[in-house]
Automatic annotation (TrEMBL):
InterPro entries: 4Fe4S_Fe-S-bd, 4Fe4S_Fe_S_CS, PSI_iron-sulfur_center, YfhL-like. One of its GO terms (molecular function) is metal ion binding. GO terms for cellular component: cytoplasm. This is Ferredoxin. It comes from BD1-7 clade bacterium. Residues 1-29, 31-64 form the 4Fe-4S ferredoxin-type domain.
Amino acid sequence: MALKITEECINCDVCEPECPNEAIYQGEEIYEIDPSKCTECVGHYDEPQCQQVCPIDCIPLDPKHMETEEKLWEKYATLTGNPIP
């Protein structure tokens, strides 16, 4: 399942550089996450880095983009060109 940034976002700029897949970008009003690039940091870290650094906890799972861990690993492999371990 991809993550999403809610309207509580204060545009503090700390999440965007932490994303190893470059899935976070500045939207019209707040930062947004491209669900086709979000792997919840699977393959890179044990926990989503954007959630770890967000000072206001506004990055929940996105129920509109449900994915199994297997799908997240497949996405990781596609995005990085690395094999699934």
